[in-house]
Amino acid sequence: MVRSSQVGYRGPAVELRHLSCFVAVSDEKSFAAAARRLHVVPSNVSQQIRQLERELGVELFERTTRHVRVTEAGRSLYPSAVRVLEEVDRLRSMARQHTAADEGALRGCFAPGTGDLVSALVGELAARYPGWSVAFEPMQSAEIVTTVASGARSVGICQLSSPPGSSLLLARHPQSFLAMPEDHPLAANKIVRPADLHGRDVIVIGPDTHAEFHQKLLSAFEEMGVEPRFRPFPITMPEQLMELVAARQGLALVDRRTMAHYPARGTVVRPLEGCLLHAEYYLIWPPGDPDPLVEQAVAVARELVPTFMEL
Fold it and tell me: Could you tell me which of 105, 94, 99, 125 has the C-alpha nearest to residue 303?
């Protein structure tokens, strides 16, 4: 047992580095393996163990040229040492979270057409954490995925078909509207059926721009046995899609957000019977354990999902 009179104010005392070495050697049954685990040299581990044994007045390990064996005293001390280290880690985590809540810098990126989602999130973060510095810059969805995965940005908001593991679905809107020139023959219909698109020009995002979404749309039409004349374009922004419709380059499937935020002169939108696919918008962050700042931003975003769904 560690005597309280020996901790904190007399002599070398028992320090966290001593306990870390003790637990590592106990786990690994090897000073060399413990050193690798702690990223130090073996002599440093041996020194820390000797200091700990002197401070506690007990032998913790039986050492031979081939084996390292934990003594009975070492086995009895091991659970307490683990608990101390775990508690210290917990305290450090709490301190990081409080520091992040008081002051932090969240650097994000967002895809065109998601500005209202970003605005809602940034507004809520500003209200809860006035000490934070929050900055988002626009990028294309494919660039956002690689940028966030590399850790160059804390978070990203974009439209994806297959999101990474570290992601949160913010909004899911059916692409259940068809945009067309206002004098198009289908404009006279109150509702457009998918079969009405057979043989007609339909604008799609080109495979070089978003291969996965391109294939997803083609597969949806194929499943229904409808064969439009697909016209692929390097579309990176919703307004480009609507401008192509206005320029009579074809019809386009759009969701409610695109229809509401990016109207184009000379176009109309009609409901499409059924739903071929959905537009899904995600918050993504780097893989692995998120830092406290990102963790709190994700928690706030999760609370706002009902709001995002309505945007």
Answer: 125
